């Protein structure tokens, strides 16, 4: 593979485009839940406590975080494509479990499988795109990757809201997820090609191969100031997304909104987030990573405060769109920053460590939001996490250095 591998977006455009399509299907698997599952907990299973409702996000976040870590390690050891296929095989039963679950515990179990699916498949599509494009277009590549995934989350969240209104909360919304899983598995097995040789080509001599996985974990998490700042920002970003996923539909329903309106609001955040990343990823290749990350975290925090302050559809729509815009500023940029700093010989493992922290934010956010909402109410939970998000942006401003010129 190394002898025939060529770096660059243009040289690898067909394979890059295929991976963008595959990641859209990965995002669709997540989107099938965002509108329907919080309402299913309340209306079908009678789960009342916010902490109990959010257990499915805790299960999802914890397993996705761990799967991200192992995806990086396994991709370096066995190659990217086998890990991608394994992720789809694990995710295939998830929609069926959501359709036929007789109790809330089955929903939680389905989200364990979904977390593994998302960790293995999303991580490998990220790593493979970084492998293909080389150094010059890394931000653009991450913008396309994350945009495809989160536009699919948004569209699926919107359509599942429509299907739930017309046909009920089950099974119709989850039939979309079943088709996504089957198509994703087929494309990955038949048409996706291995990209590990591209990383070896970019890396040149085997610099960094002597680094062990635990050393890469410590470097990414704590020792390197830029990587550690990026890791904490990723965690806080998904902490507030865990709040939005689990509690926003309940907040909007309590405000008297209809299911289609809730579906539109639920879709607006990932829609702006997804579409915006095609611009912000490319912009970060020109102006650098740090200021986009700092500004994006602060915008998210202020917009979360707006969600807690208003009480009508238009106000909520503006606020969630601003959260999406702030997230678009940081999401591809954080991944590009990891790619800037980490050497290709250990980059996949560093991406896995970063995504371990980032997606661990789902679990932390769900637990924190649930406890705060049970004790003080949903709006108070939103205010606290808004403050944490702004503080994260300040940490990036103080601790991170510009990574575009690193290595």
Automatic annotation (TrEMBL):
Keywords tagged on the record: Cell membrane, Membrane, Transmembrane, Transmembrane helix, Transport
Organism: Nonomuraea muscovyensis
Compartments reported by the entry: Cell membrane
GO molecular function, one term: transmembrane transporter activity
Pfam families linked: MFS_1
Record-annotated membrane-spanning stretches: 12-30, 50-71, 83-101, 107-128, 140-162, 174-192, 292-310, 316-339, 382-400
Membrane topology qualifier: Multi-pass membrane protein
Primary site of residence: membrane
Record-linked Gene3D superfamilies: MFS general substrate transporter like domains
InterPro entries, per the entry: MFS, MFS_dom, MFS_trans_sf, MFS_Transporters, Sugar_transporter_CS
GO CC aspect terms: plasma membrane
Domain Major facilitator superfamily (MFS) profile: 12-404
Official protein name in the record: MFS family permease
């Amino acid at each position: 593979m190394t002898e025939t591998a060529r770096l660059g977006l243009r040289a690898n455009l067909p394979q890059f485009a295929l991976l963008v399509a595959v990641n859209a299907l990965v995002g669709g698997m997540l989107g099938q839940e965002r509108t329907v599952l919080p309402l299913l907990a309340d209306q079908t299973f009678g789960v009342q406590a916010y902490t109990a409702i959010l257990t499915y996000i805790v299960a999802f976040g914890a397993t996705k975080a761990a799967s991200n870590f192992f995806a990086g390690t396994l991709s370096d050891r066995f190659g990217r494509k086998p890990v991608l296929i394994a992720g789809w095989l694990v995710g295939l039963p998830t929609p069926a479990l959501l359709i036929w679950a007789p109790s809330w515990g089955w929903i939680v179990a389905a989200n364990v499988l979904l977390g593994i699916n998302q960790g293995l498949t999303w991580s490998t599509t990220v790593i493979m795109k970084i492998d293909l494009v080389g150094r010059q277009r890394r931000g653009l590549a991450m913008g396309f990757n994350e945009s495809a995934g989160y536009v699919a989350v948004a569209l699926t969240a919107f359509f599942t809201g429509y299907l739930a209104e017309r046909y009920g909360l089950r099974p119709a919304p989850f039939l979309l997820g079943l088709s996504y899983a089957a198509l994703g598995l087929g494309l990955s097995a038949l048409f996706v090609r291995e990209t590990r040789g591209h990383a070896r080509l970019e890396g040149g001599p085997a610099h960094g191969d002597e680094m062990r996985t635990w050393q890469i974990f410590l470097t990414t998490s704590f020792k390197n100031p830029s990587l550690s700042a990026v890791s904490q920002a990723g965690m806080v970003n998904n902490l507030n997304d865990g709040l939005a996923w689990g509690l926003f539909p309940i907040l909007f329903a309590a405000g008297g909104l209809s299911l289609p309106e809730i579906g539109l609001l639920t879709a607006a955040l990932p829609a702006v987030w997804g579409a915006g990343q095609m611009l912000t990823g490319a912009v970060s290749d020109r102006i650098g990573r740090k200021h986009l990350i700092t500004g994006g975290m602060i915008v998210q925090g202020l917009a979360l405060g707006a969600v807690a302050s208003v009480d009508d559809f238009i106000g909520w729509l503006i606020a969630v769109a601003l959260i999406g815009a702030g997230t678009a500023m940081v999401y591809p940029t954080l991944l590009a920053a990891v790619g800037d700093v980490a050497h290709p010989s250990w980059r996949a493992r560093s991406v896995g460590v970063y995504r371990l922290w980032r997606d661990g934010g789902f679990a932390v956010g769900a637990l924190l939001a649930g406890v705060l909402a049970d004790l003080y109410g949903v709006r108070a939970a939103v205010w606290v996490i808004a403050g944490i998000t702004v503080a994260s942006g300040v940490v990036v401003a103080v601790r991170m250095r510009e990574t575009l010129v690193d290595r």
